[in-house]
Amino acid sequence: MIDRIDAVTATVTTLTARIGQEIAPLQAEVERLSTIPGVGTHHAQVILAEIGADMSRFPTAAHLASWAGVCPGNHESAGKHGAGTTRKGDSWLRDTLGEAAAAGSRTKNTYLQARYRRIVTRRGKKRALVAVGHSILTAIWHMLTNDSDYQDLGAGHYLNRLAPARQARRLVNQLHQLGYQTVVTQTQ
């Protein structure tokens, strides 16, 4: 049994060295993709192995997401829109994006965590993870197309989208629904 474990360990070491040799020309892209929250070196290697570094074959990020099978589904019948399932897509890429999305949703004070929390309350955990994976893939497309670094939008991205007066009205209405009386004054 110990001999079998040693043989498997030797095989893993050999394959890891071979992967390192094959991915060496793309090392800069691997390091750049590893800066995305939740995407580790292994995830970046798998993503680049599946989609490549040349994004000219995908005109937009939506084309890449559709090919990968992480775009939102669409089911329409008789003019009514229902929740559809995602396409089958590339199974290795989908699995890797799922793992990266799960890790990214647990990071603190990041856009990916805010996106996960925003969607999970309405749609559930699995659909929220697919949406976060879609966001990661969109960011990857932009990074590889524009040769740029990852720029996190921040945890307050969704909070800062509303006008301050509108957000204040919404919060006051929530307090009124809970039975509280409020007096709102604006500070300078």
TrEMBL record:
The keyword Transmembrane helix applies. One of its GO terms (molecular function) is transposase activity. The chain crosses the membrane at residues 127-144. It comes from the Bacteria. Keywords: Membrane, Transmembrane, Transmembrane helix. The keyword Transmembrane applies. GO terms for biological process: DNA transposition. Residues 31-116 form the Transposase IS116/IS110/IS902 C-terminal domain. PANTHER family: TRANSPOSASE FOR INSERTION SEQUENCE ELEMENT IS1111A, TRANSPOSASE-RELATED. This is Transposase IS116/IS110/IS902 family protein.
